[in-house]
Amino acid sequence: MSDGFAGLAPCVHCGFCLQSCPTFLETGDEADSPRGRIYLMQGLARGDFAPTDAALSLHLDRCLGCRACEPVCPSGVIYGPALEQARHQIAVARGVPLLARVVLTIMAEPALRGPAMTAARLVRRVAGWLAGKNRIRFAFGMLAATAPWNGNLRKRSHPDAAPPAPAPHPAAPVAVFLGCIQRGLFGHVNAATRRTLAANGYRVVDVAHQQCCGALHAHTGLHRDALRLARANIAAFRAAPDAGIVVNAAGCGAQLKSYPGLFSGDPLEDEAADFARRVLDVSETLAATGPRVGAPLPLTVSYDPPCHLLHAQRIDAPPRAVLAAIPDLRIVNHRDADSCCGGAGIYTLLEPAMSRAVLDRKVTALAEDAPDVVVTGNPGCIMQIGAGLRAAGLPSRAAHPVELLDHSYRAAGFYDRITLDSVSP
Ligand code: SF4
Ligand code: SF4
To answer: Ligand 2 in contact with 66 (CB < 6 A)?
Structure first.
């Protein structure tokens, strides 16, 4: 593991980052700001604070890990790896909460994850009716938000208005990273990813034996688990050495791109760097081809960039290019778009009060624009925002950008000539 604390060294304590931090905006407490947390982490690194220090844990636990503090920092502080290292030290010293341990064990073990996801998909059928504001009903709202989006479309699309299809570019091989939540609850997004890539001329190849990316484990301080999962994924993708690795979950993409840091000083370091160079968000891959323009969808859409796409990977234009390939979409920019939704992996389970407070600000902003769909390229954000919209009684739904592109392409007839062996998760 590389020295994550080294990224904090450029901090000059200027405070420019404070107003970008959702938790500081909630509490107004310096210790809940990036600058305050950097002070705490540097103290931990020096040994001034023990990893069992209650105040240290309180304020680092409250951090969303959204990394909104990084792009606004004039000194170039790299905050994310430092937080992971601090949480690793805290996890070693005091352990992780039981709820986190249970969830992360299920995510990492396919034998547990399969039945858990099957049960979740069954409950999902009634989750929309049970969704609401309190903690239990909010969880049902999160589950309901994992259902395929198609609500506003059947009545309103205009398949006859499809523009002529340009010839796809020569086939380049790509393999879709399937994820754990993504595979279990968002199989329709994985299928849409495969179809839209194929419609843009990519040759989609399958890679077996993929595992969870390990992001949730790394963010919780479970370094050994994150390392084990990373090794398995690097080994799995040796089966398709020429294929780009396409990711449709921003949190997974950021983690896969950070594998070289996990293997610093390890014999696998160079291969991890090669692996990371192959990783692209699905929006980057599609934007590289244009992407092809589909059929019109007359919808009002609000784009809400996931923190791990916008801040951690610094990807902004490609998802907008994907939406621009859908004629008649009216994109509205809401004032809280660049801020975290409060989902932040399992943060929504572990810090529910702060998570909801951060989400409420976003939902209030979204309510002003009343979009048909809020699009965001990360499963946790779809679940969090989708549940927030339901809890607020708003008719808007959350969806992944490729779901909309997929509907547009289907209406345009682009799939008539595509044969994919399988579009199942
Ligand atoms: S992290 Fe950057 S913006 Fe924030 S206090 Fe340090 S130098 Fe200033
Ligand atoms: S990662 Fe997000 S919540 Fe944590 S200090 Fe930075 S801006 Fe604040």
So the answer is: yes
Lowest mean pLDDT among 129-138, 214-223, 248-257, 415-424: 415-424
- Specify the amino acid at residue 374: V
Tens of pLDDT, residue by residue over 171-188, are 799 999 999 999 999 999
Place of tokens 């604070």: 49
Element (H, E) at 284: helix 282-287
- Rounded to 5 degrees, φ, ψ at 224 are -65, -40
Our answer on whether the CB atom of 34 is closer than 6 Å to any ligand 2 atom is yes
Strands 244-247, 203-205: parallel, antiparallel or unpaired by DSSP? unpaired
CA distance 150 to 378: 18
pLDDT tens sequence across 297-332: 999 999 999 999 999 999 999 999 999 999 999 999
Residue with the two structure tokens 């490729």: 402
Q: What is the pLDDT of residue 99?
A: 93
- Domains of the chain in sequence order: 4-94 (1.10.1060.10), 131-160+290-411 (3.40.50), 162-287 (1.20.1050)
Q: Which residues line ligand 1 (CB under 6 A)?
A: 11-17, 34-35, 38, 69, 73, 75, 77
Half-sphere exposure of 55 (CA within 13 A, CB side): 11
State in Å: Cα 265 to ligand 1 middle: 29
pLDDT digits (tens, 9 = 90+) for 34-86: 999 999 999 999 999 999 999 999 999 999 999 999 999 999 999 999 999 99
Number of neighbouring beta carbons within 10 Å of residue 419:
6
Task: Identify whether the C-beta of residue 195 lies closer than 8 Å to the C-beta of residue 406.
Answer: yes
DSSP designation for 339: S
Query: Tokens in use for 370?
Result: 């009343």
